[in-house]
Amino acid sequence: MRMQRDESARRAPGALEAEVLAILWEADGPLAPAEVQERLEGDLAYTTVVTILSRLHDKGVAAREKQGRSFRYHAVEDEPGLAARRMTKVLDNEPDRRSVLARFVSNLSKSDERELRKLLGKPGTGR
To answer: What is the pLDDT of residues 62-95, one digit of tens each?
Structure first.
């Protein structure tokens, strides 16, 4: 008979992927699934860890390299890069990009708006 996991111990959707990404960001180099499993809190099955790593790879946020019969994984981007990727994905799915961008900028704090203006004024930051 399998023991049921306490419902209060369940992670929020996406939380496990975030935990695995944090482990990849902190690592000095690529990690095998077993190494990721060791660093995760709790008693996740090896197959669960492999599934999460595969999903991260499929989403393009983790890269993998073949080593022997298995893979080692590393994060493709850091946290700011991942946040920027998510923002771009949201923007790409909107039919009226100009309105979305205008609304986004109008909702920025004054300090964020100043920072954005500085970034846009630098060569190589705009397109």
So the answer is: 999 999 999 999 999 888 888 888 899 899 999 9
List 75's β-bridge partners, or say none: 62
Cα separations (Å) of 97 from 43, 86, 104?
Answer: 44, 15, 10
Residues 25 and 44: their CA atoms lie apart, in Å, by 20
In the predicted model, is pLDDT for residue 110 greater than 70?
yes
- DSSP codes joined into one string, 41-105: SS---HHHHHHHHHHHHHTTSEEEEEETTEEEEEESS-HHHHHHHHHHHHHHT-S-HHHHHHHHH
Residue pair 101/91 in contact by the 8 Å Cβ criterion = yes
Q: How far apart are CA 64 and CA 73, in angstroms?
A: 4
Using the predicted structure, report yes or no on whether residue 2 has a pLDDT greater than 90: no
Residue among 54, 53, 57 at smallest CA distance from 40: 53
Cα distance between residue 20 and residue 82, in whole Å: 14
